[in-house]
Amino acid sequence: MSVIDHPLDIIQDLFIKNWKLEQSNEKNEFGVQEYFQSLFDTREKLLEIPLLDAQSINTLPVNSLVRLRCMVQDTELAQEVALFASTVITRPDGEQKLVCHRYSDGPQEDHEMYSGSNQDIMDLRNSYYCVSVPGESQWVKEYERSGASSLDESLKEMKLGDTASPMVIPERYPFPDGDHFAAVVKTHSSDATIGVTDMIEVIGVLGVSDRVMTGNAFEIHDEFTNAPRIPTVHAILMRKMEDHGHPELGLNGHPEQDDIQMCAKDAAAIRKDLIQYVSSAVYGDQLAAELVLLHFLARVYLRPSGAVLGKFSLNLKDTSTNSTVPRNLTRIMKNILPKVHAIPMTLQNLNNNFFFPRGDEQLSSGILQVTRGTALVLDETAMDEGTLVDKGLKNLKTVSDVSMFQTLNYNFPFHNLEFQTDISLLIVSLGNSLIPVDCAIALMPEALAGTQPVEPTEEQLHSFRKYISVYRLAEYKFSEEIAKEIETEFMEERKAASAAGTTLMSSNELAFNISLAR
């Protein structure tokens, strides 16, 4: 019996073996999660499960086992009452038995509900509205599809016209008019650790497409009959992924010791080649390339007493006519970073779109509602003359808050909610940026910058990707001796500045210097 083709049969066997009727108030897992965890305990085994996306939804059968990598866009879908188990009569033999429905839409086609049963057990389900990981790079998508070779071949044989686009709710995806895939993930448990913008990997049973209901589940809305049908997945395993999103770093996306040791062996050579590759996008400016690499490696690692340690927003000032830096940097970043998106900071974009999420009965997305670890390239060289309206000013304030505090406000009719985030902002501008940043540098083109750069090999790209992800996520702590030396030097610099009548180094500047050193 194939667990991928017939997961419900496996679940029913576990139900019969491990569940007792007297446990009906507990409705525990009866060994399902443990069984599937043991089956798919490595990344290689997980890749054998068909990936659910905009293409495969047209070929994968309902009730098969699927894998979904996605961002949680909304956790507040209506809770629903569903069957946990019921007595059915099987066709055509007429056998009467108790069947588990926890990971399905209800009784199957060959099951008939037994009307005389008093053993029907109900359950509560929570639902998350999930979307494709915003800005996910092509090389990540290709890796995630690499295990399902038979599925890939069947998709290649399909004509483009034969593929129906799955339904989505456009305002629930961060990037306006962006192609994406959406699914409703249904789970019987309410995991308080999973929230909006979390990147998750779900292993579950593909359900039928269902209309997304908002508001009170027991009210009838006229518009509900016209709501789009969104694919559903009944989650067996739901794992929060490490924010950076590199697909090869263990089951939770975090680097293991072997990854760190492997990168350390060739770190100097990889770093040298990587600097040269990045410098080709910034007119050969080596210092700018060094800062861009530090920007790639930066992440928020601590928030003591309101401070934000580890963030590193960067502004590259390019005074050349018709700057190519935003386009070139975006191309390079998409080759080596897992999640990248470029945003032209035009007046039309600022005045007409929402950069912040907002909601009433349902949460509409904003351009900045992305997963932590996403790299955004803000192109201010595209800005033209004109007036920013109230929405545009509010959008600028939203970007500034992310740059300085790594927080994003979600706007609701009667209140705002502030969520912590960790979004990398790289801003290219003609002069000083409109956005306050941690570091700004004017580009200084090298004399030989006009020569055509040599594109890295696939092997080099692989090493660049691993190097950045591993060292971005690897833990590093200063020793007590180094910490004491930093403290002493800080105090001495403040004394010297006080004696000279110059500006004292602030605690924020110290935190920034420590982050760079780290």
Explain what this protein looks like in three dimensions.
This protein is of the alpha/beta class and 518 residues long. It has 3 domains: 7-240, OB fold (Dihydrolipoamide Acetyltransferase, E2P) (Beta Barrel), CATH 2.40.50; 257-473, 3-Layer(aba) Sandwich (Rossmann fold), CATH 3.40.50.300; 480-517. Helices cover 30% and strands 21% of the residues. The strands form 5 sheets. Strands 1-5-6-10-7 form a 5-stranded mixed β-barrel. Strand 16 and strand 17 (415-420) form a beta hairpin. It starts with 6 loop residues before the first helix and ends with a helix. One of its GO terms (molecular function) is chromatin binding. One of its GO terms (biological process) is DNA-templated DNA replication. Keywords: Nucleus. It holds the Pfam family MCM_bind. This is Mini-chromosome maintenance complex-binding protein.
